[in-house]
Amino acid sequence: MDRRTVLQWGAATLATSALAQFNFAQNTSSSAAQPRKLHLDAYSRTLHWLRTPSEVAEACHQIGNTTIDLTVRVYPGHVIPEKVKTDLPPFVNGLKRNGVTVTSMAAEITDADTPYAEAMLDTASSLGIHHHWWRGFTVDASKPYTQQLDAFKPRVAGLVKLEEKYGMKAMYHPGGGFSSAFFDLLYVLKDFDPRFVSVQYDTGNLLQTNQQNLVTQLRMGAPYIGGFVFKDAVIEPNPGADPNAPVTAAGRGRGGGAGRGGQQGRFRNRQVPVGTGIINLPLIAQTLKEINFNGPMECQPEWPELGGADQGRDTITIPREKVIELLRRDRMTIEAAFAGTGLL
């Protein structure tokens, strides 16, 4: 069975199972007087140049955020994994004392065998954090594709056991390899409980030039949309490219999405501030309301105007006030797109 056949079969299967759950979710929530309020998190990777909870909290308030997705990663992550049990509680509580709640953990967890995975989940759960990043599956182009997708499933099953044990939900963050294809992700996840494993839908790494395709993905994958990431991009000619190069939208940067480097084809995807590229923010907001989305959301800017904050560096090359201004602009743009939905 080739990849195209897998995706066609997977889409048909998911259309039946996911839409059935989606319709159930709509019916059960239709009697609610008000839609559930969502929150737009700060992304602490863009604040690695601030190292203490009070400094991070102050910046969050200046940007306009009262919640945050906190990096638990190797330095310059705000908490390093091997010290999660001792360092995460004081950092989370320090933020809380300063009016900022940690709602999600940006961790580098691949499966249950990831070093310190159980310690990270145990500690996060004890602090009231119940969502976390999950990523890192890769495929080998020289091997049968379907078999590799199926081989991920036992690893997912092992992670599900940990998630259930600690009351956590893993959100797979799309990156390179198979994970840049949304229906590949759903093919792997469809046999598992969406209370414990899900997709952190990323509009940059899953860039859809046809916005109706994005709507279709959100509708079909509704039960498995655990989190949402706002990125925007433009598709443009690649300066200096070989005119005889393939006509592709190459140039996906960090994570395989709409980044800034590595362009090879005649066209490239270049990330830009949200609201200035091709994604339709009001359409996304309305679709998230339609599918009863209730997970964490955030912007993950990776454009160079942020002076190093875009790359998670512990120093910045532009004034602090400028970084805050640019991050605040993204937040205000998202809030404007949600006006009238009753979600924010």
Explain what this protein looks like in three dimensions.
The chain has 344 residues and is α/β, with parallel strands linked by helices. The chain has one domain (3-234, 278-337): TIM Barrel (Alpha-Beta Barrel), CATH 3.20.20.150. The protein is built from 9 helices and 11 strands. It has helices at residues 3-29, 53-63, 84-97, 117-126, 145-166, 182-189, 211-220, 281-290, 320-337; strands at residues 40-43, 67-72, 101-107, 131-134, 169-172, 197-202, 225-230, 232-237, 249-250, 267-272, 297-299. The strands form 2 sheets. Strands 1-2-3-4-5-6-7-11 form an 8-stranded parallel barrel, surrounded by 5 helices. Strands 8-10-9 form a 3-stranded mixed sheet, with no helix packed on it. Helix 4 (117-126) links the parallel strand 3 and strand 4 (131-134). Helix 5 crosses helix 6 (182-189). The longest helix has 27 residues, at 3-29. It is globular, with a radius of gyration of 20 Å. It starts with a helix and ends in a 7-residue tail after the last helix.
List keywords for this structure.
single chain, 344 residues, alpha/beta, TIM Barrel, 8-stranded parallel barrel, 3-stranded mixed β-sheet, 9 helices
